[in-house]
Design brief:
single chain; about 280 residues; Rossmann fold; Alpha-Beta Plaits; five-stranded antiparallel β-sheet; 6 helices; about 25% helix
Amino acid sequence: MRFEGVGRRYGPRGPWVLREVGMDLPAGTLTRVTGANGTGKSTLLRLAAGLDAPGEGRITGRPARTAYVPERFPAALPLTALGYLVHLGRIQGLDRRTARRRAGEWLERFGAGGYRDTRLGELSKGSSQKVAVAQALLAAPGLLVLDEAWTGLDTGARNELDQAVRERTAAGGRVLFVDHDPRRLAGEPDAVWTVAAGRVTRFDVEPPVAELRVHITATAGTGVPEGLPTAYVRRDGDRLTVTAAPSASDAILRALLDAGWHIDTLRTGTHTTDDESVRA
């Protein structure tokens, strides 16, 4: 699969989000995409999955079976978890019996077997995400695109998704992913591409994990949650800024949301906190 001079912008006069993208996604490879928030990572993944069309250039060699998992799953559908997966399996070319069997297997594998008859709108964020991941794996896609797909999953489900990624590449599939935790599948990608200023650049070596931090800003909460893991916290009026290792971000987000905070931004970078920060 190949990107050849690919560009994308939204609207005929809108600014270009990506320009002159040239990248290869060979069969049986794992590719990571990195970059700050708003640089076009999700746009790149949507182009790869065929959900967006290039404004210039072309993408060739996309496998017939392509699956995509967004960070936020549209759960407001009048279907049960099992019914939704069977429906998606049928769309992906499976017969009903096979779709039902594989749906049950993947739900069990991700620890969501008990929710097979639960309507999607009644599922928690974590359980909804398990369904979203399961639908992408039903038909053994030749291209699996994961946009922060681990967000909201519990530890067991995250480990299962790691293993499912390895199984896909071992079977000759391509996996393209973004995740805010640099430790996710660390050392395993065959290629790492970074998006910045509308350009996509390949790195032969992954960025050093120790230098990366996740930065979270939130507003409109009440008190500052206690015991935020390995986090540096600064409060300025009704605005809260939290800086921590990316591996702690899920726990921090849960704690802030439980305390009534609204998450404004989440980004990764190499900037460190200054002396005025207070460690939680």
